[in-house]
Each structure stands twice: as structure tokens, then as C-alpha cells.
Amino acid sequence: MIGETDKKDKRESRTIAIVLIAMLLVLGVVLVLMLPELSELARIHLSPGLGVKDSALISFFVSVVLLVVFALFSGDGLIGEIQFMIPGFFLFFVLNWLLIAWVF
Question: What keywords sit in the KW lines (predicted)?
Fold first, then answer.
């Protein structure tokens, strides 16, 4: 009985790990394929700098996305809490810091 639940847990953990790795690989491929478009967009729209309104919009959506990531990874699951919360908070801090420095 104990062996069956252990095997079931291992199988579920393996499935979750495979899905996460596949999602990261797909995201990496998408980013690589979109790199020319993103670099052209950045060259055209970001070279003169952004105004306060535009940077506020970007900052708002970045904050919302990070809060959603916090909410997804802070549960009591296979994926733990602290190893994602601390780097996420650091990324949030650095991103907001750079956006504020960029605007002013």
C-alpha cells in the first residue's frame, strides 16, 4: 500500500517535471523566434525614451504579471514557495528600479 502511493507520487512528480520542462522549452523557442521582431520594436519605439504615461503602463502590467507568478508558485504543492518568492521579489525590485531610473 505504501509502495503504491510512493510510485503514484513519483509518477505525478515526473509528469509535472516533464510538463514544466516542455513549457520552458516552448517558451525558449518562442523567444528565439520572436527575437528579430522584438529587437526591431525596441529599436524603433524605445530609442527616444518613454514618457511617464507609457512607463506607468509597462510598470503596471509587469507588476500584475509578477503578482500572478507569485500567486501560482506560492501554493503548497510540489513547487515550493521560498525559492521562487525571493528571486521573484528581487526581479520585481530591480525591474521597478530600472524603470524608475529610465523615466527620470
Answer: Membrane, Transmembrane, Transmembrane helix
What the block records as the C-alpha cell of 71 is 500567486
Q: What is the pTM of this model?
A: 0.42
Residue 71 one-letter amino acid:
A
Give tens-digit pLDDT for 7-36. Answer: 888 999 999 999 899 999 998 898 888 888
Q: Residue 100 belongs to what domain range?
A: 49-104
Together in a domain, 53 and 5: no
Of 57, 59, 43, 45, the residue nearest 101 (C-alpha)? 59
